[in-house]
Amino acid sequence: MKLRKAVLTGGGRATRLYPITTTINKHLLPLANKPMIFHAIEKAVEAGVTEIFINTNPGETELQKYIGDGGHWGVKITFFEQTGGPQGVAHIAKVAERFIGRDPFLFYFSDNVLLGNLKDMVDEFHRNRYDLMLAFSRVDNPEHFGIPLFDDQGKIQEILEKPQNPPNNLAQTGIILYGPGVFFEAFNNIRKSARGEYEISDVHSYLIKNNYRVGHREITGWWKDTGQPRDILVANQLLLEHRPETEYTLRGDIHPNAKLSGQVQVGTGSQIGPGVTIRGPVIIAENCLLEDCAIGPHVTIGAGTEIRRAKIEHSIILDNCEIDADMYLKDSLIGKKARLVRKPELDSGRQMIMGDKTIVEV
After folding, report:
1. CA gap 28, 35 in Å, rounded
2. pTM of the model
3. Residue 109 Cα to chain centre, angstroms
4. Tens digits of per-residue pLDDT, 72-92?
5. Domains of the chain by range and CATH?
6. Which of 71, 125, 185, 214 is the most exposed place for a label (fewest CB within 10 A)?
7. 19-42: per-residue pLDDT in tens?
């Protein structure tokens, strides 16, 4: 039975990314100027998936508006709420049981960013008739992840959830393949953890200890869990660097005195004025205005944003922002409609309207 279904995460509050996620679903934050969850959808489609089920927060409307019914990717997309409130990521897939039935499926955490495709992993899953296939990646902070415990023969004994003393630095990624019916049998035989959640690691440990066929592979390219602002910026940088050269196009109005180097994309209706220096990789969306500023490398700028005088590197600027200040910004994440301007008379004081957990350096 071929794998044709996938469950993608689209809910959660992303409190570690406050304040920017107070007004935008984390999964819609742009990476290489494309909503994060779009990258996950594309990976699922490349793997042969034709039906995708995405969980949402209660009352969510943004995801549905941005993603649609899946026709853009040639697949069918259905949205569902995680009933009963947040109870762990394993509970997300359990709620999708009515869609999955006894079919094999891909469980993809949409805030995981992967370079390369999943085809080889899916092919190995089918070839060896695994009940469960896990993907691991080496990380610097394994105590924050589910970590496999191996025996002397290299066989997985169990998955340790966020161990204080990790036995290795292989992190369980949010890219998982399940055979027919096995996830739901395992889920029905676990209990909530001490933190009140159904742990995905407990599901996997149940399958391992009950002698199901479990395979694994190490992601040797690149994988990132975008749980922190720094992770978002690193993912953006690497996606920009690995983006096909043919996707960098110049469609706006570029002044002859502007200096562009490297891979640069300028959207329709954008104006790149005199005194502008852009060092790629950089993506500038539609209807932006740049004057007398230096941009890049590793910067994405959302539609309708205006930038004057600033120098910006390694940053993500969302839609309809205004930055008009003779200052240097680096490693920054600027939300929609934000205004950053410098007053000429410093003695008159600065006005600031700042949300919870805002970070400002002046």
Report:
1. 4
2. 0.89
3. 8
4. 999 999 999 877 777 888 999
5. 5-235 (3.90.550.10), 243-348 (2.160.10.10)
6. 71
7. 665 667 788 889 999 999 999 999
